[in-house]
Design a protein that fits this description.
This protein is an alpha+beta fold and about 80 residues long. The protein has 2 helices and 3 strands. The protein has one domain (about 15-80). It has helices at about 25-35, 70-80; strands at about 15-25, 55-60, 65-70. A 3-stranded antiparallel β-sheet has the order 1-2-3. Bound molecules: zinc ion. Zinc ion (ZN) binds near residues 45 and 47.
Length: about 80
């Protein structure tokens, strides 16, 4: 007898700075970064990036920096929580 449990983990990130549109999702990025930390989608909404899309880099003291889509970067910056 066996059963499968799906575990969901929520992580709260606190950012001190967001570098808006500082990165571009391109072939180089896919080769260099996307595969190693699954950096092929937004770290917040999980929307996959498309080739040529500008990405924002969010810096955190306590965790790895996160790559965000610009919608999420705007949302965080508008909240003024940075
Ligand atoms: Zn997003």
């Amino acid at each position: 007898m066996q059963y499968t449990v799906t575990k969901t983990t929520n992580t709260t990130y606190k950012f001190y700075h967001i570098e808006k549109e500082s990165l571009t999702y391109n072939e180089w990025w896919i080769k260099a970064r996307a595969k190693q930390r699954k950096l092929n989608k937004c770290g917040k909404c999980k929307k996959p990036f498309i080739i040529g899309e500008k990405m924002s880099l969010a810096f955190s003291h306590k965790s790895l920096n996160q790559v965000l889509c610009n919608d999420c970067a705007d949302e965080l910056l508008e909240k003024g929580d940075i």
